[in-house]
Structures are given as structure tokens and as C-alpha cells.
Amino acid sequence: MQSLIVVAGGTGTRMGLPVAKQFIEVEGSPLMWWTLRRFRAALGEALDVTLVLHVSLFEGWAELEGRYGAAGVDRVVAGGEERFHSVRHGLAAVPASGGVVGIHDAVRPFVSADVVRTCFREAAVHGSAVPVIPLKDSIREVDGAASRAIPRDALRAVQTPQCFDLGRLRTAYAADYRPDFTDDASVWEAAGSSVHLVPGDPFNLKVTTPEDLIVARAFLREGH
Amino acid sequence: MQSLIVVAGGTGTRMGLPVAKQFIEVEGSPLMWWTLRRFRAALGEALDVTLVLHVSLFEGWAELEGRYGAAGVDRVVAGGEERFHSVRHGLAAVPASGGVVGIHDAVRPFVSADVVRTCFREAAVHGSAVPVIPLKDSIREVDGAASRAIPRDALRAVQTPQCFDLGRLRTAYAADYRPDFTDDASVWEAAGSSVHLVPGDPFNLKVTTPEDLIVARAFLREGH
């Protein structure tokens, strides 16, 4: 049993646009349509998809489905205060009681079928699978006005889908919220489980800023 | 007195292309031409520019200047084994004895005039100025098969131009090479000086991979 939770709990204000970023039309479809097509293409029609959406966007969502056709989600549930709460809402709505669940950012439309399949397959074996890529820039840690170089070779940027054993992830998400829960791996880890890393994909960009939107258009035009 | 060292010490093998990445033509000019134009536009003709180039590319450089016109560098010197040695060669060739020197990656053609001017101005006041931006992805530190989440809010990605007091940077570069010297700030810091951080620019991408090249074309087409 494979389940997917697509998280779009925010209202997209960072982009400075009148429309939420996951709803922006790029090359003929809203970003989120591209995202969902990738998962259907990688895992097939049996995949159960829950979309977590900020309540203020429910109406916009219905309009978009009217205009662009069904996006291919099985249900839409309301987002919560933080990403943590949104994922918890999603986990409560997933009908399965076992198997692997993937949690994916709505605004990562370029995830490859290969990365999706690898994450779901490895999570079935190891309990978790989180895609990561090396960092290209040097990294510094700041502390007030001071800062220090951090060895870049030991660092990885975390992407999605982050995939887990559904039952164990539900148990992990029963925890109280903490500000350092920035992704699902950190919640999983806080519950005492180890995180299994797999290679991500440099194209698997999170589209959150105006410059990312330029990149997104270029990637889609060139067939990525 | 303002000096610039543009570092292109590598042969560009990571791109998997027959031409070094800094020589790739994008929107009518090799990447490095775009880079140098930005600095001339920001700081004017008085800026002294030293290009550090891998010796295997000297011939190709001459051909490119024949084809695309002068790139606007005052001298070309040979790169060294590591980036550290390339910068050291550049510092030895800079004619000035004082003022600010900026060290810039040849493959960052999108640096804004604003960031360039800020870095040179702040370095004149503080001794150093290094542009940084926040990270968008969650970050993990790996240690063998284990890994742990690192608070992203405290991390910054380091860009270029990294600007310094020329005399003090020359002293810092008299040190023996160490593998953790991944950028100029780390060399500066090892000499006991503090690094002054300034806001970078999300468009100031380092073009090192095939997907970056798609991004580079899109940015240039859209006027960035």
C-alpha cells in the first residue's frame, strides 16, 4: 500500500504574487498539477493521494479543477498552523493502516520518477528514505555578529518525497510540536528512529521565490 | 584602489562537456564575458582585473578573445593545484599594494551591481565583506551511515565576490594550504581576522552543472 501526502499548507505570500505559489500556472498547468503528474507517472493509479491545503485556498482549488481538470488527488484536507500540523492532518486522513507514506512539498514539481520510486522502495526496506543532495556553496554558521565556516562535505540539502513506514510515522507525529521540526525526518528522528538517506536529484527544486519561477519555466520548457 | 581576481582555475570537467564551463556560450557570449561585464558596469574602467586560468585553457582563451572581443581583463595568470593556490597566484600578480581586492568565481555571471558595490564598500570599512544568503532546504550533517538535522536558520550559503583588505589578505594567503580552505573567508579567518557578512543575492548562482546551464540561459533571457 502506497500513500502520498502533498503539503501545501501555506498561502504562498513569500512570492509576493496575488496567487498562491502552488497555484501559479507554468507552461499551461498550475505548478501542483505538474507535481501530481510526476507521482502518478512514477507509482501508478493505485497510489492514494491526500492533499493538505490552507483553508483559504479551498475555493481557489475548486476553481482550478474546473479550469484545468482533476489534479488527481483522492481527498483535500485543511492545513494547520505549522507544516508539522499540516502533515499531522494529512496522516489522520490517509485511509491505509500500513505500508509506505511519502510526504512531498507541493512546490517541488521536478522530482524524477527515479527518485520517487527509489524513496518508496527503500522506505519499505529501511523504514524511512529521505532524498538528499550535496551542497555547492561554502556554508557558514552565524551566531549574532560572529560566524564560522562549516565543512561542506559533511552537509546535505534535504528534498522530498520523504518516505516512511506509515504506522511508525503516525506514532512519531503524536509528539508535541517543536520549532526544530522543520521536516518529517526531524520528527521521525525525535521519535528514536534513524533516517535512511538516498540520493536526491539536483533538478528537484523547491519553487518558493520569483527567481525559482524563472527556473521552473526553463526546466519545464526543456523537458524536465 | 580596487582590484578583482576572477578565479577559473578548473578545467570544467564536472559539466561533462567538451568545453570548460566558464567558456560555454550562453545568449551570445561565453559565461565569463557576462561575469566581467557585471563588474565593469558596477565599478567602472579603473577596476584592475586579474584572471586566474588553468594553463590548459590559455590557448582557448586567446581564441575566445579573437572571436568575442576583449573580455576586459588586465592580465591572465596560471591557476594552481587547488583554488587556494590559484588565488595565491592571482594575489601575487595584482599590481596594487593596498585597497580592496575582490575574489570572484568566474562562473557566477549573475552577481548584481548592488552586491558588487556593497561588498567593495563594506570591505573598505570592515576589512572584509562576504555575501551570504539563507538556505531554503532543510540541512543534515552526515557521519558515515548516521546523520542529524542542523538548525537551518543559523546557516548561510556563501557567494562571491569575497572582498578583503589586499595587504591583509596577502598575509593570510602566505599560510600553508589546508583542505578546509574552501573559500577566501576561511583563509582570512585562519589568519585571525573576523569575517564581515553582507546580504548576497539569490540570483548570484554558481553555474557548475548541466541544470545550472538551463537556469543561466533562462536568467539571461529574462534580463538578470
Shape of chain A: globular
- The tally of strands of chain A reads 12
Q: In percent, how helical is the residue content of chain A?
A: 25-40%
- Helix tally of chain A equals 7
> What is the N-to-C order of secondary-structure elements of chain A (H for helix, E for strand)?
EEEHEHEHEHEEEEEHHEH
Task: Report the span from N to C terminus of chain A.
Answer: 28 Å
Offer a few descriptive terms.
12 strands; alpha/beta; two-stranded antiparallel ribbon; globular; 25% strand; eight-stranded mixed sheet; 224 residues; homodimer
Per-chain topology:
The structure is a homodimer of 224-residue chains.
Chain A: E1 2-8, E2 25-26, E3 29-30, H1 31-43, E4 48-53, H2 58-68, E5 75-78, H3 83-93, E6 100-105, H4 113-126, E7 128-134, E8 138-143, E9 146-150, E10 155-158, E11 162-165, H5 166-172, H6 184-190, E12 197-199, H7 210-221
Parallel strand pairs in A: 1-4, 1-6, 4-5, 7-12
Antiparallel strand pairs in A: 2-3, 6-11, 7-10, 7-11, 8-9
Helix pairs in contact in A: 1-4
Overall description:
Two copies of one chain form a homodimer. In chain A, 33% of the residues lie in helices and 25% in strands. In chain A, strands 1, 4, 5, 6, 7, 10, 11 and 12 form an eight-stranded mixed β-sheet that branches. Chain A has helices at 31-43, 58-68, 83-93, 113-126, 166-172, 184-190, 210-221, and strands at residues 2-8, 25-26, 29-30, 48-53, 75-78, 100-105, 128-134, 138-143, 146-150, 155-158, 162-165, 197-199. The first copy, chain A, is built from seven helices and twelve strands. With 224 residues, chain A is α/β, with parallel strands linked by helices. In chain A, helix 1 (31-43) packs across helix 4. The first copy, chain A, starts with a strand and ends with a helix. The mean pLDDT of chain A is 92. Chain A is globular and about 50 Å long. The interface between A and B is large, with 46 and 46 residues. Strand 10 (155-158) of chain A pairs antiparallel with strand 8 (138-143) of chain B, so a sheet runs across the interface.
